[in-house]
Amino acid sequence: MDFQLDKRSEDFRLRIRDFVDQHILPLETQAQAYDEGENIADEYLYPLRDKARAAGLWCLQLSKTNGGQELGTVGMAACYEEMNRSIFGPVVFNCAAPDDGNMILLEKTASDAQKDRWLAPLAEGRVRSAFVMTEPAPGSGSDPAGMMRTTATRHGDNWVIDGHKWFITGAGVAQHFILVARTSDDPRKGLSAFLFDRDDPGWEIVRRIPIMGPEEHGGHCELRFDGLEIPDANRLLEVGDGLKVTQIRLGTARLTHCMRWLGLAKRCLEIAAEYVSEREAFGTTLAGHEGVQWLLGEAAMDIHVGRLLTMHAAWKLQQGDFARKEVSMAKIAVADILHKASDTAIQLCGARGYSRDTVLEWIYRYARCARLVDGASEVHKMVLSRNLLQEGNEFWSWG
Ligand SMILES: Cc1cc2nc3c(=O)[nH]c(=O)nc-3n(C[C@H](O)[C@H](O)[C@H](O)COP(=O)(O)OP(=O)(O)OC[C@H]3O[C@@H](n4cnc5c(N)ncnc54)[C@H](O)[C@@H]3O)c2cc1C
Question: Per-residue pLDDT tens for 213-226?
Answer without folding.
Answer: 999 999 999 999 99
